Amino acid sequence: MNRTRVLIATATVLALAVAGVVGFQVYRRVAGLDRRDRTTPDEIRRQIAALETERTALRARMEPLLKQDPRLTGMPEAPVRVAVPTSLARTLIARMLTGLAERVTLDLRDIRVRRTGTIRRVVRLGDFDLTISVTRVRATLTPGTPQLTFGGNRVAMAMPVTLGGTGQADVDFRWDGRTLGGAVCGDMHVTQSVTGTVVPRTYPVSGAVRLTATGAVIEARPELPRLRVRVNVAPSATSWAAMQQILDQKRGLCGVVLDRVDVMGAVKRLVDRGFNVRIPTERVRPVALPVAVEPTMTVRGQPVALGIRVGGLTITEHAFWLGAHVAITPDDGAAPAAGGRSR
Amino acid sequence: MNGRLATALTAIATLAVAGCDRAYEGGGDLRAQRVVLEREVEGLRPIVQRLERGEPLLPADDVAVAVDEALVRELLLAQLPFETDVDRFHVQLTDVDVQFRGSPTLQLRGRLQVRDQPDVTAAVTLFGALDDVRIDATSSRLRATVVADHLTVAEATGLAGYLSGATLDEMSRAVRLAMQDRLPQLSIPVSVRQELDLPAVTDGPVRLAAARLPLDVAVSQVVTTAGRLWISIRITPGDLGPPPAASGSAR
């Protein structure tokens, strides 16, 4: 081997060595082997030992404290449990009841009340026909503060509601004068529209809201007694005055008749009778509380039915518990939820 | 010449292998163990602190939803197998274990394969946890994200069997980071509605206008104890008002 070959071989070896070192460093960088946050197994073992010691201590402190948590006592044994605290149920039920009352509207139309009669003064003077046509009475309820008392799955409720509103009516008075009367006071027809306000009246409403596990939801079902309200419309002073003015204009020869009939008094008596209206409390539908166990899930974009078996409602001092057994396939033991959702 | 060259190359190779961070060899399993323990201890600390202050496990006025770990495993299992390609690798996860002890940890197991060399495979275990438990605004369902804390590679076949443990650890790390955003989400079959609808009564002289009570709902706390995932949900009712016209009034 001559000197030139030795030099070439040496240079080649050195070049390869340099390339190897550089390549190795690149490899370490790419593979992340030169990260400074890496820890050795010994370091990790020490960390694990410390963590295990802390975990044991934490578990020992936690176990007895968990058993004392009053909210967890009495919960149902089921893979899925939902607890609605009584404080939240109280708030939601109160909001729903007042909301229901606020949204009740009585809309009465085309109600007619009529009074007819004959006026005599020795002889028959004539016949009168007084009709009051209520064109519209619109009344609303204003709720007071509901008082709720929890007992089992039944929440007793007492709440005052005050009826108020406005009304419009047409007063129609006809006088059909007879022979003698005709000479004194001929036929007469008086019409007048009157407006007024519904006489405010407060009614105590007492009932209950029953909480039940229906399907996979906790449902609040109102149990309200029949509620009858009496709607009385008090004509406004302006309406009274306008009507009185018309009658006054007719007095003249008809004074006797008008005095005998007492049109204003008759109108007042008819109006004072008022109307009885029944609030259809039985039509107030149940409302599902906002947490529910869902009967389906999506698996890779496809909806899959779950088998859900819901236990009854468990009631504790602090919460309403709903327990549910959920199976991915119905033959896993849980039956599909009965009834389904009413949402 | 050939003898000298071979000697030189051997020396270089020896040098390279010697620098392969033997100090870190075998750390993968230990790291996985540490990650799980860290999660558990970090979850236990605030629970114990709260209980020792005399506070309940979950806020007293919140709705509580508890789900057993066995059911969560079933729900996650239903989403498997999960397959994805990460760089040169194909990852298939086929099994899952769930453990709710202080923290909602889970282990997803499967295999990793080099895509253009099917004979190069390895068993993988992804250590992770459920995170970001939330109420999905669209479906009202409870959902949780699976986060990946650590990925171990074992039982490597083919050329992968010759890689050092440290190299495998680093490869695992890269795969785990790349997979993070693709992992399946957990859908818990519990819904929390964001409104209560009062149905209308529209016929007859006494009418009831439909109304909607909006509810501000949010997951306020998540704790895991004794094999159960506890989700605390704060529900704050808003002001009652008419329902949006498009949604109708009937339940």
Please explain how this structure is put together:
The complex is a heterodimer of chains A (343) and B (251). Chain A is of the alpha+beta class and 343 residues long. Chain A is built from six helices and 15 strands. In chain A, the strands form four sheets. In chain A, strands 2, 3, 4, 5, 6, 7, 9 and 11 form an eight-stranded antiparallel beta sheet that branches. In chain A, strands 1-15-14 form a three-stranded antiparallel beta sheet. In chain A, helix 5 packs across helix 6. Chain A is elongated and about 165 Å long. With 251 residues, chain B is of the alpha+beta class. Chain B folds into two domains: 3-190, Bactericidal permeability-increasing protein, domain 1 (Super Roll), CATH 3.15.10; 192-237, no CATH class. Chain B is built from four helices and eleven strands; from the N terminus they run H-H-E-H-E-E-E-E-E-H-E-E-E-E-E. Chain B has helices at residues 2-18, 27-52, 69-77, 165-179; strands at residues 63-68, 82-86, 89-100, 104-114, 117-135, 141-154, 186-192, 195-198, 206-208, 211-225, 228-237. Chain B has a six-stranded antiparallel beta sheet with strand order 2-3-4-5-6-7. Chain B has a four-stranded antiparallel beta sheet with strand order 1-11-10-8. The longest helix of chain B is centred in the first third of the chain and has 26 residues, at 27-52. Chain B is elongated and about 85 Å long. The N and C termini of chain B lie far apart (91 Å). The chains are: A alpha+beta (343), B alpha+beta (251). At the A-B interface, helix 1, helix 2, strand 1, helix 3 and strand 2 of A face helix 1, helix 2, strand 1, helix 3 and helix 4 of B.
